[in-house]
Amino acid sequence: MACVTVKHLWKEYGDQVVLENLNLHVADREFVTIIGASGCGKTTFLRMLLGVEQPTKGQLLIDGQPVPAEPGPDRGIVFQRYSLFPHLSVLDNLMLGLEFSGSRWLGKLFGARRREAAEKAESLLEAIGLHTARDKYPSQLSGGMQQRLSIAQSVIREPKILLLDEPFGALDPGITADMHEIILRLWQANRMTIFMITHDLKESFQLGTRLLVFDKRRHDPHAPERYGATVTYDIPLNRKKHSAPTPPLTAELVR
Amino acid sequence: MPRLVNLYPSRGSALALGALPFLILIAAYLFGSAARLAENPDDKLLPAPSAFVDTLKSYAVEEDRRSGEVLWWLDTGASMKRLLIALAISAFIGIVGGLAIGALPVVRSLLGPFVAALAMIPPLAILPILFIVLGLGEVAKIALIVFGVAPCIVRDVSLRAGELPKEQLIKAQTLGASSWLLSTRVILPQLWPRLIDALRLTLGSAWLFLIAAEAIASTEGLGYRIFLVRRYMAMDVILPYVIWITLLAYTMDWLLRLARARFFPWAESR
Ligand SMILES: Nc1ncnc2c1ncn2[C@@H]1O[C@H](COP(=O)(O)OP(=O)(O)OP(=O)(O)O)[C@@H](O)[C@H]1O
Ligand SMILES: [Mg+2]
């Protein structure tokens, strides 16, 4: 379960109002896509959900509780880049989350527990088509492969909420179809609530169950920083995603 | 004709080009030595190659008449021991201090300015203090090298820790990493290559401090020997010792570079 409630949320940096009076309720397992002009505060909103930025005023609740002030395993994140660990192989990158939870002091698993974690990681690798690259380092992967790995990495701890900040923004348009399929599969398999920022309007309609548009309601031409952005359009998208047939690989992941 | 910036020598010619300055230097020496010796057979400044062979024999093969030791190896052993112990201590301080300062903002506030100030003190200026406090033995010499090298390594390693993308550290936390796991499994492994780079860069100053300490208070060691025979203008001893020191330093540098490529292959391709 993860529903997100936003009540009269404001975010300011000094004199600059970034977000003003945001009100929102997002149900469990919703796939929210967010679009809006550059610099209007989309990433800031995501960072508040992540716990690395705090609201200036108002409330941001997950299941009725304030968002913790630190990132945690209940909220996964995929950045546009730089979120893989360059010193670990593909498989180790994927297993890291399991090793953190399974071994508090060494952060490493051994024996049967390692085999179990490796099996889970490998089935996920297969699902994202990276099985053959399991022993490579991130720097040896293409941009698309890196992003697929980053997405898989952030769902392996089965977060309630997955945050995606323009995850495909740096990728070739040709490969985004594959990426969309992967993200939808993982979403269905893992029962998450997803927030995804994108610059691609088509993508936002294709993927989401709900589309939020961030924009400024008011404008002061002499003081552009006076007013912040808020949700100006909140569009339910009635795609039949929940009833889509589960692809065979996903069944393996749900286990 | 390609631009000069795009003109890459083949493997063979790269080797030949690399050897060229060395060959020129040797040729210049032989020429100068021969010219001076022709004028004055007792000239001590540029001894003939045969003099080096004699020195090598009496220093590196035969035992010293007074002490019964083979001086060359006695000096090498003593110097290398001091240097390696000092570098090991510095590397340890460097990685632990660099990690703590780089990973924990509280430690950064506590020790950052202090280490920066320490690194600015000229080590040779406190050499007398070290001799007074620690005596004239091995400890003072090792302390001088550590003092000269460790603060720079700490700073360099902690800078690297600060350069790690924020995204990575946040990602690790969303995977459930505690401060401890974040430090040991994410940050520390990425600091080792930089530690090796820092060691390579400070190798030169480590040798400098070693030789300075040995020149002032010692009874054996490469630096001690050079400064001892200086009194007799024994260029036939000094020059082979200098070349030997250079060779040792170069080998250490090469081994470190090799170790980096061997143990941290992920840090190579960039
Ligand atoms: N740490 C900060 N300190 C001060 N101002 C900040 C900070 N972070 C963001 N801002 C400001 O907040 C505003 C919103 O930034 P944000 O990154 O959320 O935009 P965005 O909607 O994600 O834009 P883009 O689509 O370009 O990524 C910007 O004007 C930015 O200058
Ligand atoms: Mg952004």
Protein model, in words:
The complex is a heterodimer of chains A (255) and B (270). Chain A has 255 residues and is of the alpha/beta class. Helix content of chain A is 32%, strand content 25%. In chain A, strand 7, helix 5 and strand 8 (193-197) form a beta-alpha-beta unit. The radius of gyration of chain A is 19 Å and the shape is globular. Chain B has 270 residues and is an all-alpha fold. In chain B, 77% of the residues lie in helices and 0% in strands. Chain B has helices at residues 11-39, 49-61, 71-103, 105-120, 127-134, 138-163, 166-174, 179-216, 222-229, 235-263. Chain A binds chain B through residues 50, 52, 70-73, 75-77, 79, 81-88, 96-97, 99-101, 104-105, 107-108, 137-140, 150, 153-154, 156-157, 159, and chain B through 165, 167-168, 170-178, 180-181, 184-186, 189-190, 264-267, 269-270. The site of magnesium ion has 3 residues of chain A, from helix 1.
**Termini Cα gap of chain B:** 29 Å
Let me know the average pLDDT of chain A.
89
Shape of chain A: globular
User: Which strands sit side by side, in order, in the main sheet of chain A?
Assistant: 6-7-8-3-9-10
Bound molecules: adenosine-5'-triphosphate, magnesium ion
Strand coverage percent of chain A? 25-35%
Structural domains of chain A: how many: 1
CATH class of chain A: Alpha Beta
Helical stretch count of chain A?
7
Number of extended strands of chain A: 10
* CATH architecture descriptor of chain A: 3-Layer(aba) Sandwich
Counting copies of identical and different chains, the oligomeric state is: heterodimer
Percent of sequence in beta strands of chain B: under 5%
Bin the helical content of chain B.
Answer: over 70%
Number of domains of chain B: 2
> How many separate helices of chain B?
10
Based on CA atoms alone, the radius of gyration of chain B comes out at: 24 Å
Global Rg of chain A: 19 Å
Query: What is the name of the CATH topology of chain A?
Result: Rossmann fold
Could you give a short account of the major beta sheet of chain B?
none
Structural class of chain A comes to: alpha/beta
